[in-house]
Amino acid sequence: MEYLNRELERKFLKMNQSFKAIMVTGARQVGKTTMLCHLAEHSDRKFVTMDNLQDRELARRDPKLFFQMYRPPVMIDEVQKAPELFDTIKEICDQTDRTGLFWLTGSESGKLLKEAGDSLAGRVCILRMYGFSQREKLGLTGLPKFSFELDDLLQREKHFPENSIMDVFEFIWRGTMPGTMSMDQEQLQEYYNSYVDTYLMRDAIDDNGITNTEGFLNVLRACAAFTGNLVNYSDLAAAGGVSVPTAKSWLKVLQSMGVICLLEPWSNTEVKRLVKTPKLYFCDTGLAAFLSMWTSRDVLMNGAASGHYFENYVVIEFMKLYSVSSSKANLTFYRDSNQNQIDLVIEENGLLHPIEIKRSANPDRKLVKRFRLLHTSSCAPGRGAIVCMTDRVLPLDENNCMIPCNIV
Question: Which residues touch 6 (CB under 8 Å, ≥6 apart)?
Answer without folding.
Answer: 31, 35, 129, 136, 141
